[in-house]
């Protein structure tokens, strides 16, 4: 099918000859790269890769990024020991420097989650509940509406009762309307026990369960490669920074300004994987 917008991008695209010289200085190792325009203070785009040079070249071959490349005047980079460091640094730089072309990893300090209390599902907020230590939290959402929609989706898939979940009012001793349509298993009218209804809800949410911070305080993740080590300092899922020595790691302030969704998602895999990297307790 003809796509006029895509064709326009292709027609406008020209290989960025003015950037060719920058490729000579880009390393083929892990790290973060930064596209700058005329103003070196505000970046246009920040990305990460296990091979900076290869990833930047892929931008050069993409006609859909013609506008970014046309505006770019220079490309800088920061090397890291490995992928974990690159992921954490990219997330941190995007939040602090807010590049024009990055659409994700922007700061979202007030997050929502689904908390199971009794037989009901409630929406709670990260500025009111400690997401790092609270039990029975499921999912991380940027808005209340997206959390409610997730509950609705699960209810539709599992034939759960909107009334029992608090999504709509339920008349006393009467089945909900969805029961008459075969979309509710009948907890509202005694056809299913509240315990069975709740168990199906919990099972459906289980993949979204938020893990509690498993350490007493700050830790340093030692990422090693080629005889070098970076220490990534983390406190309650919040990335504080990366240093070269444990002495420097211990100097980081322990304050955690908010629960960081992106750091949590980056760190869950390495911290709970079978081949967990070396963890040093700092507190």
TrEMBL record:
CDD domains: GIY-YIG_UvrC_Cho (cd10434). The keyword DNA damage applies. Keywords: DNA damage, DNA excision, DNA repair, Excision nuclease, Hydrolase, SOS response. This is Excinuclease cho. InterPro entries: GIY-YIG_endonuc, GIY-YIG_endonuc_sf, GIY-YIG_UvrC_Cho, UvrABC_protein_C. The keyword DNA repair applies. SUPFAM superfamilies: GIY-YIG endonuclease. SMART domains: GIYc. Gene3D superfamilies: GIY-YIG endonuclease. It comes from Rahnella inusitata. It comes from the Bacteria. Residues 28-103 form the GIY-YIG domain.
